[in-house]
User: Fold this.
Amino acid sequence: MAKKQKKQKQAGAGAGGTPATVALTAAGTAFTVHSYEHDPAHPSYGDEAAEAMGVSPDRVFKTLVAEVDGELTVAVVPVAGSLDLKALAAAVAGKRAVMADPAAAERTTGYVRGGISPLGQRKKLRTVLDDSASAHATICVSAGRRGLEVELAPDDLALLTGAVLAPIGRA
Assistant:
């Protein structure tokens, strides 16, 4: 069964808006919303998003929450690869990084796993964006729920999240 996909420009403050799209709208940032029918049986949220949108996996970025020296930190990396925990720790001048407990990530960000957005989080966490994002005019990240992505310029994402750019992804 083909997945349905909808595209909307500047959808955020209206019906179906998430804290991420509301934050983008409030900031006056240009973005496009992509929605698709989420399949709970799909083994990878990020790969599912790339497939459903017909976008190269190197332009779709997943939002991961890790603990660096005990402090929750957001890592935004391409779905085509994985997170290098040592590189993440180094990017924030830390010593050791481990993946965060999923319940702690959900509680702190206000989003569910598979729908965690780097934008509009309940508690603003320090954020690191993989520097490969700079190679693209736009990238896609979760809009705050499964089956919903926002496409925006990587510079806008970095500005709104206060992200540092660093080589934290592995192919």
In short: Residues 1-15 have pLDDT under 50 and may be disordered.
